[in-house]
Amino acid sequence: MNKFGFKISTPRSIDLDNGDRRLYDELVATVPSYRYCIGCGGCTATCSAGQFTDFNIRKTHFLFSRRQYDKLSTELLPEADLNKCMLCGKCSLVCPRGVNTRGLIVEMRMLLNNK
Amino acid sequence: MFDIFVIPFCLGVLALLVISVIKYYNWIKGFDRRQQMLVRKNILSWKFVPAIWEMIRECLLHWRITKHNVLLGYMHRSLAFGWFLLIAVGAVQAAVAFPGGHHLYMAIFFNYFEPRTPDMAHTHAMDTIATVMDVLLLYVFSGLSLAILKKLWSKPLGMKRTTRHNVTDRVAKFALWCIFPLRLLAEGATSAIYHNGGFLVAGLGSVMESIGLDNGILEYNLWLLYSLALGVFFTLMPFTRYMHIFTEVFLIYFRQLGLRDSDKKNGYTLFELSACSRCGICIDGCPINRELGVTDIQGVYLLQAIRNKDVLNKANDIANMCMVCGRCSTECPVGIDLEPIRRQVRNEQVSSIDHPDGYQYLKSVHHFNAVGRVAYFGGCMSHLTPGITEAMEKIFMAAGQSYWFMDKEGTMCCGRPLMQQGMVRQAEALRDLNKRVIKKSNATMLVTSCPICYQTFVKDYKLNIPVIHHSQYIDMLINEGRIKVKNGGQRVTYHDPCELGRGCGVYDEPRHVVASAANLVATEEEREKSLCCGYNLGNIHIDSEQQKLIRDAALRNLLAPNPDMIATACPMCKKAMTRGSDIPVSDIAEIVACNLVDS
Ligand code: SF4
Ligand code: SF4
Ligand code: SF4
Ligand code: SF4
Fold first, then answer.
1. ipTM of the assembly?
2. Which of B424, B544, B551 to mutate to test the interface with A (most CBs of A within 10 A)?
3. Which range of residues forms the domain containing residue A24?
């Protein structure tokens, strides 16, 4: 197969209907402003913890919103280690959509912890 | 002398005594080790002197309430001090009248027993005491009328909203309100028969005599009702807000001994919960009440919800909705520190995710180029308002001060936002990491631009070098003549950041600084009464629209005198208000940096 110069990747499409909506629904019930997120990445760009590590807050909440909770374990994905967040609040202040990111982070941690 | 009607009173006093002793004993047993150590260490020190002074001033004279509103203070004082004097003078009266000794109830029901005691000494002094007792009773009545007025119309007493009480509280209040009128009527009835008592009682007595009532039966029933009212009130007291009368005395004492709240709810918290008189003074100033119309989350309801454990979820919601702006704590006449109590409630909610080991990465990120003697900590928020850090660097240079910009390469948080959310272990981990760096740097002073950081550096870090906010630092430079500033001539209003003003009591230095570079104009609500900018990190549940409402209220106050510019001393406040203001909002460091003159 190699001689064609390409390989067949496994499809990466996510069927949102198949995911477990429960955690996500709970998240937006507690932090309704998350509905307005446009995934711009402003939060990650300013993140204090992200300056020093590869912690990526946008990626983390993005995966959460895609019901990919399994990927959000620290071992699999160091970028999603929410324990690194210092709750400093820079992300909330820069978010162009007024998402309450700090509330989002605490709630995600609670939900993942009790999963 | 004995009569059966005194039994309700006696049982009430007994119940009050037994229940309070059990309660207080258990609460004191529930102190944590640090608190117990402080009690042991200080119990025999001179600290009882200021404690007694504070008890007289606050428990009897209600000085802090008087400062809030004169009439409200008078109401509380006449009830507390008036009743206290009635008891004290009553004890003297009984001691004089019954030199052979007497039972407690004979002092309480003095006018009933006095004419019935055959060998009673009746002297001129007795008449004077009777007159004094009547004056005191009138004094109490004046307070009672105000209390009833407050129930109907609270505005003259300086309160827009009053507390909503629960059923036990209301029954106890009714009993309390009955006590004094019943006492007067009972004394009047006795006087109608025996012609005793001072001008008030005797006057009422002659009226009762002249209208031809059957004073014999009436008298006994009135004394019985009076005794019942006392009995009901005393029995209910330990379960109602009126327990604050005694608990405040203990709280003042423990506070003077140096005790403060711990991270978890314990015996000391229970003293604070019980010391709250539910006066409701904490309700009116709260921005969540004023701007968002949420009237059930203020200090009084927080304490009430914790006390009634059955509604713990309510306590959670209440604690979460607060901005931690500190307004209620500064206004509370009992001096209850509400922030740590809120933290305890939040801590219980998040304890399962309070993992302190996420910040190891910070160990490798500090670059030591600590040449300066002054360490400068901008804080996370100053990195979003680079004008402030640039201004500070300019000022350091103008003053010829070598400095080390500690978080220039990237921000490590001070830990206070975590503290505010109740994540005390995580906050401690951050503090330890930062402390290590500060120690290693050999800096001799820490200057910070962010009041949030400043508060925790001062209160929680326990560093062995001085920590000052940049407003204090610039004020010092100006006073020492190390920088020269010209007055730019603009009219400026100053916004007190919650964390700097109410949080740390820094009100004057930033005003000096503004006044040296511009013309400072006062605003309506400033200093302790300053309004939160709405973006305080203390709340992670509020949404941005609500934040804007709170911010706009603060802006209205600052814009009212038509200034050219708004000054503040917090990067967070600056960022928040810049977004809603048509005129420029500057940090005091920026104003000074613009107006530096070369010397
Ligand atoms: S900055 Fe706001 S809108 Fe952008 S990704 Fe982050 S949360 Fe979403
Ligand atoms: S609050 Fe957390 S996620 Fe947001 S900027 Fe600070 S460290 Fe990053
Ligand atoms: S917390 Fe303080 S101000 Fe509020 S009701 Fe209690 S005693 Fe009054
Ligand atoms: S701290 Fe501020 S927001 Fe919170 S209850 Fe007190 S006054 Fe209201």
1. 0.90
2. B544
3. 19-113
